[in-house]
Amino acid sequence: MTPLPPPKRLLVIPLRYIGDTILTVPLIRNLRHHFSDTRLDVLVSKTAAPLLADCPYIDTLLVEPAKAKERIPLIRSGQYDTAIILRKSFTIAWSCQQAGIKNRIGYDKQRFMKPISFKRWGLLLDYKTPYPSRKTHVHQAISHLSHLHAFGLSAVNDYLELWTSDKEERTIQTLLDTQAISPEKPLAIIHSVSASSGKSVPIRHFASAVQHLNQTGYEIICTGLSNDISTYEKLAEASQIPIHNFAGKTTLKETFALYKRAHFILSVDSSPIHIAAAAGVPKIAGIYMTTNEKQWGPHSSKSLFFPAIIPPETPLDSPKIGQILQSTTMEATAVDWKNKPVLG
């Protein structure tokens, strides 16, 4: 297929979730590298928008309207000639066509209304990128970079990155000081919840891991939303370990600032895994039950990855889950936290 010409006005549309948006950053950065004179805008969800607010590669960050009928006028107003659609969505491809975008690039796998569901039809796309299978060994950030092939281009780098301001850094440091968290002790993050169904783990299964972290000298911080406060209070009660409950106390960017100070994180397969990878957390333990850790694990050359694989048939009340989290945590803490690894 003949490569598409360099775009004059380009729109990138990531998935709505926070973690998926982070995995789009390498593609955005490479597009800016190859197309320095192109108008490069990104359409994101309201939830994920703060993470890209300071991205230096974007000209305009558009927040997706709550009402679908307002999407087409917003896209049309940008007068884009090219769109890269990372969502598996026929509706988004249709919206871009209706908005007058001539060149539409996206994954061949698209979601349709029931009873059709997902099909690899790639309708209304001018360039179709094969969506990876569930058993792929290719990370999703690398799969996103394959959209460069539509222009006959390759990636020059693939690392994750995010940005904070001095304000967020000061806010987190003040919070740590207020909680009397010692800078001389290694810092561990616990994140047990996810907005995606089937990824959260009952909090009691974290108790043994938290006890081990405490015994090995870690300060322990739990992160999440304000409605997760009670969850972590239950963890403190179950483990009988003093933990710092930061649920609801930090914004997304402040969470990134916090993670930059961490030495270890134990998290379900959700956005904290990718925030930690962008922050260069030295040791990342991710909990995977229904997803592929090779595709959705931390993408970082500065982090060691310790996957906690829970067979999908395992009942959520099984003590085996707690044993897996504890053994994974013990494996990770055996690595010297003071030495941040730089892997090849």
How would you describe what is shown here?
The protein is built from 13 helices and 14 strands. A 6-stranded parallel beta sheet has the order 3-2-1-4-5-8, sandwiched between helices. The protein has 2 domains: 9-151, Rossmann fold (3-Layer(aba) Sandwich); 166-333, Glycogen Phosphorylase B (Rossmann fold). The protein is α/β, with parallel strands linked by helices. Helix 8 (207-215) runs parallel beside helix 13.
Any key phrases for this structure?
Rossmann fold; disordered C terminus; alpha/beta; globular; 2 domains; 344 residues; 6-stranded parallel sheet
Largest sheet: 6 strands, parallel
Determine and state the CATH class of the largest domain.
Answer: Alpha Beta
* Low-pLDDT segments: 339-344
Please provide the count of β strands.
Answer: 14
| Number of H- or I-type helical stretches | 13
Q: Which sequence of strands runs across the widest sheet? A: 3-2-1-4-5-8
- As for the CATH topology of the largest domain, it is Rossmann fold
CATH-level-4 superfamily name of the largest domain: Glycogen Phosphorylase B
Please state the second-level CATH architecture of the largest domain.
3-Layer(aba) Sandwich
Cα Rg: 21 Å
Element-level helix/strand string:
EHHEHEHEHEEEEHHEHEHEHEHEHEH
Q: Percent range for helical residues?
A: 25-40%
Structural class: alpha/beta
How far is the N terminus from the C terminus? 34 Å
Name the shape in a single word: globular
The proportion of strand residues reads 15-25%
Total number of distinct structural domains: 2
Mean pLDDT: 95
